[in-house]
## 1
Amino acid sequence: MTSSQAVLADDSGAPRSPVETAGTSYLSEYRRNGYAVVRGVFGPDEVAEMAAAFDRIYQRGLNYNRDWRHKNTLFRVADDPNLGHIVRMVQWPAYFDPTMARFRIDERLRNIVAPLIGTDIKQIINQMHWKPPGAAQAEFGYHQDVRSRRPRHAYRNVATSYVQTGIAIDPHGPDNGAMTMVAGSHAMGELPFDTSKTSMAVSKDARHLEAAGLDLDNAVDLVLEPGDVALWGLFCVHGSGPNSSDIDRRFYLNGYVRADDCDRGEWAFRDGAPVPLGEPVLVHYEDLYRRPEPHYVDTA
Ligand SMILES: O=C(O)CCC(=O)C(=O)O
């Protein structure tokens, strides 16, 4: 069996992942540590296609001199002291780019998350991250994603209803600013991190872990090959450091939620079947219906 085959239930009716069926126990790893990695989900041609999409969307982003929004799509740019104008992230590229649109509803991502959240699945995050080599500020301070699930009343059973995924486009390791996961932190509930700044505005700093009562020994850098998929939950503490290598660290994030447990978001899979995007619905941008037109924004 290959990882591209759709297997949503075993003989007992319990959902299974084809990857686990093939012998990789990422589900027990995920439940134990709060995160896991599934290796070799996407092949070299597919990664090359996503990489080309990253490159063309980056070029488009360079045209915006400030953060720029159109409906749910947001380009976050920066004037980096070392590199000049850079693009740090794009939210919801899938509305305008066919490649990003296709992979957000790829059956292999569904098969990875379905054992955890079922087959009626909405999507809250669709995001591209770049970390250009040498950038002065391309880090993410330690945080839990639960801080960004707002308004909180729109999300239920947050510990178990949500799975964030990230597809490595480039080799991803400590040299180019890998994600660092704090194993076991998911079991500690919501921790007292400073939320006065966005995680993108803060460096990855071990003192923040100590202040939150976490053990530094449990901080693990992800090492991913292109096409590997990492997954983590809303309470898993994570961050990522600077890129001191000479390659980028592109990462395609898609965050999925059990549909019954969320009032927001775009449908991704209904009864396991992929749902393409239509006219944008309410996700995080509260002014979607009041100010849908393209415009520059001042984001923190
Ligand atoms: O891309 C990264 O390194 C960090 C991603 C992250 O922390 C997040 O999306 O919450």
## 2
Amino acid sequence: MKPLKADELRKKFIDFFVSKGHTQISGASVIPENDPTVLFTTAGMHPLVPYLLGQPHPAGTRLTDYQKCIRTGDIDSVGDPHHLTCFEMLGNWSLGDYFKKEMIPWSYEFLTKELGIDPEKLSVTVFEGEEGIPRDTESAEIWHSLGIPYERIYFMPREDNWWGPAGETGPCGPDTEMFIDTGRPACGPDCKPGCGCGKYFEIWNDVLMGYNKNKEGQFVEMERKCIDTGMGIERTIAILQGKKSVYETEVMQPILKRIGELAGVEYGKDDKTDISMRIIADHIRTSTFILGDQRGCTPSNVGQGYILRRLIRRAVRNGRHLGIQGTFLAKVAEIVIDLYGAPYPELLQNKDKVFDELTKEEIKFSETLEKGEKQFEKMTFFMEKQGIKEIAGGSAFKLYDTFGFPIELTQELAAEKGFTVDVKGFNEAFAKHQELSRTAEAGQFKSGLGDHSEETTALHTATHLLHAALRKVPLRP
Ligand SMILES: [Zn+2]
């Protein structure tokens, strides 16, 4: 495998598809323009949905791009060596143009020639079929004709190899996914692509959108067939470079190095400080992408602004864990902008805004963080004495109202000490406060502060839309 860097992979992918007659389009904002069901653009195909559904695209029927994506549903898992809340996705699309016969050979060509992946290490999955929809032997035969032996072509059911439709009805279809054998021993006799043990690494997914689901729930083959593919940059370069983690690659190392300089620690020497360093690196990277976006927002108590606030506050708190005093977030963001200013010039244009907003939020939160933590300590000290293990909703609300602790932060602190939080009680206290102060616009607070994970709720709402897209780039390699 060629140990490509992110910049090289991005360029190779785009150049490859341009050489196959595609037009490069620019990626969209991380804040979706016409989709109120999700807070952030979560996949490369997300901005392309209207065109996959039939709207003509001004740039034609063969498109390719790289897209910054944000998924914060797993924010609590960030800190381990695998999770990221922000990543780049490469994609190419056929809008009623080419189909399987072109796409599968191109996939094979790109993986083996451009990325230098040993064909012996490749396995693929195809749709096994079900009542009314035939088994995708066509794709299997194309893979086989390219040299993939039948024993490495796996037929999988709908749960694994089907995308869509985006709504109740509409275009949908099977997909074919490509896996690299990492060389790890199989976890058992049933180990195969899609197994979570880490033997098989999913590198790419071609969605073969050839059906229309009608009102009667039938899948009817369409005349106008589309292709939608997605490849995550960070995890792909990690595997190409033989790294165990995306945090060991050149897109995260300089950020971790800067954090290390600020904290006087070195990455990779201590598990506990590594976790904090990864949280800061990830969260400030994502915050920089949100603040520096063409449609960027600022920290607030609603929607995207609330997620941004959570990311920043969590980074500040982890900075304190590392012993960093004073403001430091903008110094971390400088490195992110150095790394990504070329592919995303909007980051350079919005540089000052990124630094200002980070620092403003950091100062605001730092002022109360220490006091809040003291209050939290005091509170749990007395609770412990009385054998109480659940923090009352009113107390959690006080931490929010007086010290700016997002409910998730209180939950995190609580979990660290073996406590739980009465989130329902918090919501009630919050609602009551809203009613009294009448300052908030009705309805806006129902998410986020309400059920402690608005992004999850939003994703649930759009699950039908993004089901396959979400599977395309698992956050965990
Ligand atoms: Zn396995």
